[in-house]
Write a structure and sequence with these properties.
Elements: E1 6-10, H1 17-28, E2 34-38, H2 42-45, H3 49-70, E3 73-76, H4 84-93, E4 99-102, H5 117-123, E5 129-132, H6 135-144, E6 151-152, E7 174-178, H7 187-197, E8 202-206, E9 217-219, H8 225-233, E10 237-239, H9 249-256, E11 261-264, E12 279-280, H10 284-295, H11 299-322
Parallel strand pairs: 1-2, 1-3, 3-4, 4-5, 5-6, 7-8, 7-10, 8-9, 10-11, 11-12
Amino acid sequence: MTAADVIVVNTLGGALRHYTVGLVASIGASGARISVDHVDEPSRAGGSGVGWVRRYVLALWSARRSARRSGARVLVTWPVLGHLDRLIVHVVLGRGVESSLVMHDPRPLVPARGYGRVARWVGDRCRVEVVVHSGTAAAALAADCPDLVPVLLPHPVVPRAATAPKRAAGGRPVVRVLGQFKPDRDLAVLAGIGARLGDSHRLEIVGRRWPAVDGWTVTDAFVTEERLDDLMSTAHAVLVPYTRFFQSGIAIRALELGTPAVGPAGSSMADLYPDSRYLADRSVDSWCAAIDAATSASGAATRELAARADIVCRAAWSHWAREPITTTRRRAVVS
């Protein structure tokens, strides 16, 4: 079957720009023509949340006109208003346009609008496909929205060309935690790692709103796209210390650059690695063992894992582009 053309509406034009590059590459493997409309969030564009929603609706309206002419489907990369986006997309695009919404965190890790019972009830009555990137996200949606059958597709990967390592030779291994603080960050595990490895490793946290953590150097700062790549490529390992999360763009991006990511066992990070050597349980011993394995890993071998993940992504998203969206539900929805 010929792949449908796709209009991507990226509602986090700053934070998900790299993600969107991978998404376009994965879908593009099908032969589909793809266009992208970036809608910058207030932290990038300025203004208010209301202005952000207005720009989003205008982008959807433009996508509607283009899709009705070309027969393209529309894919939204992030729900601005949670499950209410399913209503917004359904109403603005209308009946004649196939549409999908990527829901990265069905139970948000930070306060967010549109995830309560009423919003879920409204969303369940709209014919918009919901895409998730992990089994844990699919399970959470199944529990919260029993009538919804989400589509599970892999998080896009953007393999990078091999470059000479920029890590300092002969120094202590560099282990970093990157990104803003969230309540589900495991501070107890980080403090335990600091006590165990603080003398033998350079332990650094870079991101906004982090508290002090014993044994770690904490830099409270926003990390730009360019600096994020540099911080990852100069680290020996990147940690993803969550007690709860659905998938990690940080872990995938580190993998792309040849730097292993260490995270909790039983999470979506298990999909990135052929074994559990970089995965840890809740014990500090387990995290330290995973860090030791990661800091001694080959960058070339890690990038090879990224290349394999990219092949899987391209195959899955190409299949998605070639199949009609059916918005399967366990009960009837608004058509």
